[in-house]
UniProtKB/TrEMBL annotation:
Residues in Flagellin C-terminal domain copies: 194-275
The name this protein goes by in its record: Flagellin
GO molecular function: structural molecule activity
Subcellular localization, as worded in the UniProt entry: Secreted; Bacterial flagellum
């Protein structure tokens, strides 16, 4: 009889200890906001959370690349539009220089302004981006990975932008300025045609950069949606449902307190109570 009673008491103590441990675990889940504290809590969920964490790290890096690409295309678009405006002015000056009625003094003034425009275009070719790297690469462009299936250079190279047929646009303008100053009308006519080509080329480059910018905007939207979906899945697996956890904690606490009270009442009985 005494041995049986002792065994029941031991079992009850162990049961209450287990319940107290579950309460402590639940309190940790509530305080940390994390439902899983160790891999053994749910091995399958823990593995999935690890996969999602790696995916989030990759998404963060790629989002950074996308933002860089957006910044580069925005800056390149501004530079190209500025160059387009300069070329439009060069066209006006070339037409004025091609006019036989233009005086030698005026042709000299036109040539000086054209040379100044060429210098500005050369400066644009050397501009740096926010990452302190050349906006327009002097050699081959370094492609950037934006997602698993998208790797491309957001901005054309310096040669692709500032050269037409292997000749720099600035040099074309300088040659035209020299022809105008010298009154060489045949060369002026050729320069006029070359400036037209440069204007068309600038428009083409603006379109190329614009297409890349639109592509990056779509990638950015997809990246944001993927980040939200991944975060939601990870939260569902990992985070504590506070309302449910608090209700469960209160229930377990009440159950433990009731068991402890009953256990205390039973333990107040004497040996004679058990023998009688």
């Amino acid at each position: 009889m005494i041995n049986a009673t002792g065994n029941r008491m031991t079992q009850e103590i162990q049961r209450q200890s287990r319940m107290a441990q579950r309460i402590a675990d639940k309190q940790v889940q509530i305080s940390t906001g994390k439902r899983l504290q160790r891999a053994s809590d749910n091995p399958v969920a823990t593995t999935r959370i690890s996969d999602l964490a790696r995916s989030q790290a990759n998404d963060t890096a790629r989002a950074s690349n996308i933002n860089l690409g957006i910044s580069l295309t925005s800056q390149a678009d501004g530079s190209l539009r500025q160059m387009s405006a300069l070329l439009a002015r060069a066209k006006e000056l070339t037409l004025a220089g091609a006019n036989a009625a233009t005086s030698a003094t005026d042709r000299g003034t036109i040539a000086v302004e054209l040379a100044s425009l060429a210098d500005e275009i050369d400066s644009m070719a050397l501009v740096k981006a926010a990452n302190d790297q050349p906006l327009f690469a002097s050699g081959s462009n370094m492609a950037i990975r934006f997602d698993d299936n998208s790797i491309f250079a957001p901005v054309p190279t310096r040669a692709e932008v500032f050269e037409v047929g292997g000749v720099s646009i600035s040099q074309t303008i300088r040659d035209t300025a020299t022809a105008i100053a010298a009154g060489n009308m045949a060369q002026v006519a050729a320069g006029n045609t070359a400036v037209d080509g440069a204007i068309n080329h600038a428009s083409d480059m603006i379109a190329v950069v614009g297409l890349n910018a639109a592509r990056l905007d779509r990638l950015n939207e997809n990246s944001a949606l993927r980040a939200i979906s991944t975060a939601e899945e990870r939260s569902a697996l990992e985070d504590t449902d506070l309302s449910a956890a608090i209700a469960e904690l209160n229930g377990m606490t009440l159950t433990l307190e009731a068991a402890q009270a009953a256990f205390a009442r039973i333990n107040r009985r004497t040996l004679m109570d058990f023998l009688s």
